[in-house]
Amino acid sequence: MALKLEICGDNDMQRTFEILSSAFGHEHPYIDAVFPSHATASGRKIGGDRLLAIKHSDPKTTFLKVTDTDTGEMIAQAKWNIYNGEVPDDVELDGDFWAGQDEKEYAQYLFREYLGPRRAAIKAYGGHLVSLDILTVDPKHQKRGAGRMLVEWGTAIADKMGVVTVVEATKYAIPLYQSAGFEIVHHHVIDLPDHWAGRDKQTFTWMIRPKKAVD
């Protein structure tokens, strides 16, 4: 069964979010907070619409898909950010997607903390870097090479530009990223204020792939 990598079209955004939701499940407080009710039909519709809005509004973003050419099914997705020497303003998470103000503020807090290392790196490198924002494979189609295809698309661009590549990795993705040249910088735990102390803490591993010399 052959796999094909392509840039996503607008009609792919709902399936993109469905794969994201299925792959993360409820293991990641960050995803649950930023995309409330993402496992429901209505939550997935809203999530797909939010990704479509990003696709239309952020020129630094490229959404990718991997399709099984035998079935035509989209089985994996990724969102890459290519900054081209631009340091964008930090954008706050906003909208009316949450059931109450406390849930919104919790999501905003996790959003700021989760993106902290990336935002610091963008500033430190003067925007000369490439970031893998998110990559997920449909759980029914893992271990087929789709994830590697999505990683190599972005690292090839970084190598051509002669810049570093960064990613916030889950524990499951670390071996894949290491095989592509990423190095562990630190394991990060998002500490919560006392009034959210009873919630699960989000963890991730901050990884950087060194730049390659430009030919």
Structure description:
The protein has 215 residues and is of the alpha+beta class. Helices cover 37% and strands 24% of the residues. The protein contains seven helices and seven strands. A seven-stranded mixed β-sheet has the order 1-2-3-4-5-7-6, sandwiched between helices. Strand 2 (61-68) and strand 3 form a beta hairpin. Helix 1 crosses helix 3 (41-57). The protein is globular. The relative contact order is 0.15.
Question: What is this structure's SSE topology?
Answer:
Layout lengths: L2 E5 L5 H12 L4 H6 L6 H17 L3 E8 L5 E9 L18 H14 L1 H9 L4 E9 L8 H16 L2 E6 L4 H6 L3 E7 L13 E7 L6
Parallel strand pairs: 4-5
Antiparallel strand pairs: 1-2, 2-3, 3-4, 5-7, 6-7
Concise synopsis of the structure shown:
The chain is an alpha+beta fold. It contains 7 helices and 7 strands.
pLDDT averaged residue by residue: 96
Number of helices: 7
**In angstroms, what separates the terminal alpha carbons?**
35 Å
Structural class: alpha+beta
SSE ordering: EHHHEEHHEHEHEE
> How many strand elements?
7
Can you give the helix content as a percent range?
25-40%
Rg (C-alpha, Å): 17 Å
Q: Strand share of the residues? A: 15-25%
Strand arrangement within the widest β-sheet reads 1-2-3-4-5-7-6
Overall geometry comes to globular
The largest pleated sheet is described as: 7 strands, mixed
Low-confidence stretches: none
